[in-house]
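Subject: for your reference before the review

Hello V.,

The reviewers asked for a structural picture of the protein, and I figured it would be easier to keep everything in one thread rather than splitting it across files. Below is the amino acid sequence we used in the manuscript, unchanged from the supplementary table.
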Amino acid sequence: MSEIRERLAVVLEEEMDRKRFLQYSLAVFLAAFGVSGFISAILNNKASKSTQSGPSRGYGSSRFGKS
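And here is what came back from the structure prediction:
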């Protein structure tokens, strides 16, 4: 456990630019959730946005009426 803390301390003390930060963030995310979880999260998000349908008229038919 202390070896992990030492590695983490080295990474946190290191100066990095935005690109490197995003690379580390993506690597941590993939390590936590896995590649398949990442892909399914993206696909589920796109599917839920494209399959949403609402009433064609009346209250809630426009963006203003939706909550």
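For the response letter, the relevant points are probably these. The two ends are 46 Å apart (CA to CA). The chain is about 70% helix and 0% strand.

Happy to draft the paragraph if you're swamped.

O.
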